Automatic annotation (TrEMBL):
It is found in: Cell inner membrane; Cell membrane. InterPro entries: MetI-like, MetI-like_sf. Residues 49-253, 326-532 form the ABC transmembrane type-1 domain. It comes from the Bacteria. It comes from Planctobacterium marinum. The chain crosses the membrane at residues 12-32, 52-75, 87-104, 139-160, 181-203, 235-254, 283-303, 323-351, 358-385, 405-424, 464-481, 514-532. This is Iron(III) ABC transporter permease. Belongs to the binding-protein-dependent transport system permease family. One of its GO terms (cellular component) is plasma membrane. GO terms for biological process: transmembrane transport. Its main location: membrane. It is a multi-pass membrane protein.
Length: 539
């Protein structure tokens, strides 16, 4: 039995295992609960659909505008600090959306510093003046857009900088000014990349739980939690999840179609930089607009987080619980990163060595988990592993008269299984990109020297792939560290992480106490943001 044969069958088995929760969620409609659905339709279902759509499109439009504007400015114009601004615009990615929601609520609510100053200056009392309410749909769109716009910014930046200088020269020869060149030439060419970024932000906003739940917005994701834990109806929660999955899969299909179109617009020629000199007034305006966006999306939340954390740090003498939270978070995220990168390496190597249609099909299903919201994966995982526990206990009880209890569900196995499904996409992309850069002649040279398939992997591929595996593992580590919905549902009893503790404290309106674990999550997120900007720069 060759290594390729074993790998092919192992990958197929893993793919089927990882697709099981999705099949269970979609298959839940085989047992429709019409009475419960009639109750949902009479009460909250219309609100879930309307709020989810408004939130997704609101975030998509706002993030698209912010990301496109930032990418256009830093790719086209020369102004002071442009090299620093270019990578700092990625920093909001380090802040999980739910933490941004907690911070802006603390900054803008009745007892926050802005309203207090406003009342002190004007002498007005609460209710005698108008002030935007962050715990509303516009507030949720504002908060999520500030965190998610870098998705659009990164893709748009690459698209704008890939355009040839000759396009600008032709446009100028035809009498187009800068604005007309942007609208008629540059923007249409970059549109597929921008739309891809917008669709990613829409998928992220549909998957969000912590932010919308805290801000009081009833969406499909919050509905899944309420139906499961409030109404004790896991089957109906799974059917709600299936509805959300259908819409997310539609966005995922749309995103793939948009990516396919990108190939027609990319220019592989070596281009000179398009950065142009602009007047001092315009340079000041451009820099001011970008600094305002960075201030709102990163510096204000960070300063608030640091100031609250300092208060907690000064008043606390016991940090044992915080140390336990850090230990739990790092261990589970680190172990998940190792497992996911190992699976990603198996998938990538099997597809490289002996690709076939069946293997490509089953593996493509397994690596679409990132399109599924964490809550949906958690629902499917609980059902699948709960059934596995039941069967195992029945079997061992009948044969050995011994029932071990929960072996899979309710343990760290469930968490790692759910994380692997959700974040295998991230790891696989890095492994696949790394393998694509290795010429097949390396494999042939290794075989000529008498190396087996395993020897080629260990002695040739692995050393070249080390950087891809490291970067991919780092990305997975931080994603798992920030993950909230799946961790909230699947964590073992009395097992808390930084994300869960931050959510629990903020839900109890203890925003100041939640700041220290939140700050640790943000600090961990800054490192991969730096890695992302380095990759964009090298592109």
């Amino acid at each position: 039995m060759t290594l390729n044969f074993q790998l092919r069958h192992l990958v197929m088995l893993l793919s089927l295992l990882m697709a099981l929760p999705a099949f269970v969620v979609l298959g839940s409609w085989l047992l429709p609960q019409w009475d419960s659905w009639a109750h949902l339709a009479d009460t909250v279902l219309a609100g879930y659909i309307q709020n989810s759509l408004v939130l997704a499109f609101g975030v998509g439009i706002t993030s698209g505008a912010l990301g496109t504007w930032c990418a256009w400015c830093v790719s086209q114009y020369q102004f002071p600090l442009v090299n620093h601004v270019r990578w700092m615009l990625f920093l909001p990615l380090a802040i999980p959306p739910y933490i941004m929601g907690y911070l802006y609520t603390g900054v803008l609510d009745f007892s926050g510093p802005i309203q207090r100053q406003l009342r002190d200056i004007t002498g007005l009392s609460y209710g005698e003046y108008w002030f935007p309410d962050v715990q509303s749909m516009p507030g949720a769109i504002f908060v999520l857009s500030l965190v998610l716009f870098p998705y659009v910014y990164g893709l748009a930046y690459v698209a704008f900088t890939s355009q040839s200088r000759s396009l600008l020269q032709v446009a100028q020869n035809h009498g187009l000014n800068g604005w007309q060149y942007f609208i008629k030439v540059s923007l249409p060419l970059a549109l597929p990349a921008i739309l891809t970024g917008i669709l990613l932000t829409m998928m992220e906003s549909l998957a969000d739980f912590g932010t919308v739940e805290y801000l009081g917005i009833a969406t499909f994701t919050t509905g899944i939690f309420r139906t499961w834990f409030g109404m004790n109806q896991p089957l109906v929660a799974a059917q709600l999840s299936a509805g959300l999955v259908c819409f997310v899969l539609f966005l995922f299909w749309l995103e793939k179609r948009v990516r396919e179109r990108q190939r027609f617009y990319q220019n592989n020629q070596q281009n000179e930089r398009l950065s142009r000199q602009i007047s001092k007034t315009n340079a000041l305006l451009v820099l001011s607009s970008l600094l305002l966006i960075m201030t709102l999306s990163f510096f204000v939340p960070l300063l608030r987080l640091v100031s609250w954390s300092w208060l907690v740090f000064k008043q606390s003498t016991e940090f044992g619980e915080l140390l336990a939270l850090v230990t739990n978070s790092v261990l589970v995220a680190g172990f998940a990163a190792v497992v996911i990168m190992a699976i990603a390496l198996l998938f990538g190597y099997a597809l490289r060595n002996k690709p076939n249609k069946l293997l490509s099909f089953v593996s493509s299903i397994a690596v679409t988990g990132y399109a599924f919201p964490g809550a949906v994966i958690a629902v499917g995982t609980v059902i699948v592993l709960g059934k596995a526990d039941l069967m195992l206990n029945e079997f061992l009880g009948s044969v050995f008269n011994w029932q071990p209890g929960l072996v899979f569900s309710g343990t760290l196995v469930a968490l790692l299984f759910a994380y692997s499904i959700r974040y295998l996409t991230v790891g696989f992309q890095h492994v696949n990109n790394g393998l694509n850069r290795i010429s097949p002649s390396f494999d042939q040279a290794g075989k000529t020297l008498g190396e087996s398939d395993y020897g080629v992997l260990r002695k040739i591929h692995f050393p070249i792939l080390k950087s891809s595996l490291l970067v991919g593992g780092l990305m997975v580590f931080v994603d798992v560290l920030k993950e909230l919905p799946a961790t909230l549902i699947l964590r073992p009893f009395n097992f808390d992480t930084l994300a869960v503790k931050t959510y629990e404290l903020a839900s109890d309106e203890r925003l100041t106490d939640a700041s220290l674990p939140a700050l640790l999550i943000v600090m961990a997120g800054i490192l991969p943001v730096w890695v992302i900007q380095r990759n964009i720069k090298s592109h």
